[in-house]
Structure formats: C-alpha cells, structure tokens
C-alpha cells in the first residue's frame, strides 16, 4: 500500500569543506542514488529537481528546475549545468530531490511500483544532509490496514535494512531515523508497525490515510474562483455512482450554496477514491463552463460508465439529504 505521506524517514548529515553547495548537494544525492539503484530502488529515474535559494530569502530562487540523470552524469557535470543557469545573487541553500520507482518483491514474482522512495539532499552553511523517505508498507510485517503480510515482509524487509546500511557506509555517517509518522516507527534497521493494547497490528490506513486524502472531496482549490465549493451546511441533491462491484460513492450538488462534489463510499476503498477524483475533474469542467451545480449533476449523470469513474444508473432518481447525513451514510454503508 502506498500512503500519501511518509511511512518512514531517515537522514544522514555531515560537514562539507568543498565550498560549493551545489556540487556538495548533487554529489550526496548521486552517491545515495547509486546505493538505491544497486538494490533495485531507482528504476527508470530520469530527472532530479534542483532548487538554489538566495541567501537571506527562502522564497527567492536563483535556479529552480530539473537536471537529467540519464546516462549517469557526474556531480561535477550537473553542478556546471546548474551554475551556468544561475540568476544573479548569493547562494544560500541548495536542495535536490528525486522520486523513485522500485522493484517490489513477493514470494512468487516482482513488479515495479511508483513512489516507493523520495530521495533528497540539501547543502547549507558547509553542512550536507541527505534524506530518504518511504511511502510504502512493504517493509512491515503487517500492512497499513493491520493485515499480516509475511511473504511481502520476508521478501522486502531485509532490503530496506541493506539500503540503510549501504547509505550510511557510502555517505560516511550514521543513519538517523526520523520521528514516528502516522503509519510506522522508523529505526536504524528499518521501520516498525504500531500495535493496539490487545497486541493486534493497528489499522493506520483507515485512521489516518483515508481521512487525509479524502480532504480533497471536502475542500476545493482556493485559487480557482470558478470552482464549486465542496462542502455545504444544508441539504444537497445526490445520485449514486456504481460499478460492477456496487456503490462507489455519491455525486451531490447544492445550488443554494454553489457547491458540488463526490462523497466516496468507505467500503469501496481504493476504487471509490479513484472514482471520486474522476468526478472532481468532471465537476471542475462544468464549473468552468458556468453550469449551476444541479444542472451539472443532471448533465454528468448522462455520461457513460467507465472502468475508473463508474457511472450513475439510468433509473436512479436524485435524493435529498443533509451533507452530514450523506457523509455518514457513505462511511457506514457496508
């Protein structure tokens, strides 16, 4: 399972006497990247994001862009590329980051999964910090829903231990595990589950991940003045959205509050969440076209069903409820 925020994070810090923060940050990142690639955790990496901040300002940037990693360029070559493109000003800090796809193994096979790690490196005042963040639970004996996964853990847990040890050796400094996250507790050797008082593994997915990511259905983009609000105090009109497995969630609208959104059904899990994102995109388009929310509801219900978004049954009649009651229904309907 891939979480929206960190499952675990580790850092490595050391002094740097090169006098070149751009080179120092890039050298640390490439050194760490090589370790991760050796263990199958840098599959298809093509670019790194580099930002060079001006001294005395966290907002002013002398460089902000991507540099290519294809062809295994040296840190010196990349540093020259960035330096040549710098805007005038004194360098304050340098930050480099790359999101990594990695090989996830089971007892039977292996697959490449996106977003397994985020690797970063920063240079500031003759000090370089490298950080590694993981977003997946494949290292854990129990997944984020608290279900035992002995085969996955046996195939991958030791790989994280090897990566952490390899990074400490390559970077020449000790591994410093970050604070516990919502999902797990990092250590120098890996990452550990949370457990309930009765000894069972905690379901941190439903406790933290689901409420966190579902905020997108409740809070619209503040910069988009044409978008519908995604919350309402009064009653709303709503329709069910279904696929072959059942109800994915509810598409709702309120003209009185200029609001419309999708409420995913909790029992639909990942399918409900992904369907909801599709309906938000569609609502964004109807809002940009100037349609009132209930008119958007009437038009969108006519769209043909697809494998991700699902569809509104042709015989479904709009119902009325307060949004609070609709959300309660989506959370408890099994």
Total domain count? 2
Any idea what the radius of gyration is? 24 Å
Please work out how many helical segments DSSP would assign: 7
Sketch the topology as an H/E string, one letter per element: EHEEHEEEHEEEHEEEHHEH
- Overall, the morphology is globular
Low-confidence runs: none
Number of strands: 13
- Strand residues, percent: 25-35%
Helix content: 25-40%
As laid out across the biggest beta sheet, the strand order is 3-2-4-5-6-1-7
What distance lies between the first and last C-alpha atoms, to the nearest angstrom?
Answer: 22 Å
Mean pLDDT metric:
94
What summary fits the major beta sheet? 7 strands, antiparallel
**Alpha-beta content class:** alpha+beta
Task: Write a structural description.
This protein is α+β, with helices and mostly antiparallel strands. The chain is built from 7 helices and 13 strands. The longest helix has 22 residues, at 150-171. The protein starts with 7 loop residues before the first strand and ends with a helix. The model has no long low-confidence stretch (mean pLDDT 94).
Topology diagram in text:
Blueprint: E1 8-15, H1 21-38, E2 47-54, E3 61-68, H2 75-84, E4 91-105, E5 110-124, E6 127-134, H3 150-171, E7 176-177, E8 185-186, E9 191-192, H4 204-213, E10 235-243, E11 246-254, E12 259-264, H5 269-288, H6 293-300, E13 319-322, H7 323-332
Antiparallel strand pairs: 1-6, 1-7, 2-3, 2-4, 4-5, 5-6, 8-9, 10-11, 10-13, 11-12
Helix pairs in contact: 1-2, 1-3
């Amino acid at each position: 399972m891939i979480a929206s925020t960190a499952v675990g994070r580790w850092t490595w810090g050391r002094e740097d006497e090169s006098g070149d923060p751009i080179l120092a940050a890039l050298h640390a990142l490439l050194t760490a990247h090589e370790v991760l690639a050796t263990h199958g955790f840098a599959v298809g990496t093509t670019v790194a994001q580099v930002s060079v901040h001006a001294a005395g300002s966290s907002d002013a940037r002398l460089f902000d862009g991507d540099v290519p990693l294809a062809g295994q360029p040296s840190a010196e070559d990349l540093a020259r590329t960035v330096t040549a493109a710098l805007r005038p000003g004194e360098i304050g800090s340098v930050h480099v980051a790359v999101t990594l796809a990695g090989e996830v193994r089971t007892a039977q096979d292996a697959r490449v999964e996106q977003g397994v790690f985020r690797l970063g490196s920063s240079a500031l005042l003759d000090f370089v910090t490298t950080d590694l963040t993981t977003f997946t639970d494949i290292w854990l004996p129990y997944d984020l829903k608290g279900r035992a996964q002995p085969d996955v853990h046996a195939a991958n847990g030791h790989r994280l231990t090897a990566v952490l040890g390899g990074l400490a050796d390559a970077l020449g400094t000790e591994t410093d595990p970050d604070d516990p996250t919502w999902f797990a507790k990092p250590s120098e050797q890996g990452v550990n589950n949370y457990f309930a008082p009765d000894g069972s593994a905690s379901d941190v997915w439903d406790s933290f991940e689901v409420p966190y990511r579902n905020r997108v259905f409740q809070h619209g983009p503040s910069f988009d003045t044409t978008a519908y609000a995604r919350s309402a105090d009064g009653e709303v009109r709503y329709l069910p959205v279904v696929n072959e497995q059942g109800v994915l969630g509810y598409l709702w609208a309120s003209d009185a509050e200029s609001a419309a959104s999708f409420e995913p059904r909790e029992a639909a899990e990942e399918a409900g969440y992904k369907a909801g994102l599709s309906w938000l995109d569609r609502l964004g388009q109807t809002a940009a076209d100037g349609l009132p929310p209930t008119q958007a509801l009437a038009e969108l219900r006519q769209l043909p069903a697809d494998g991700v978004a699902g569809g509104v049954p042709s015989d479904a009649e709009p119902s009325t409820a307060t949004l609070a009651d609709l959300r309660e229904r989506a959370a408890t309907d099994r």
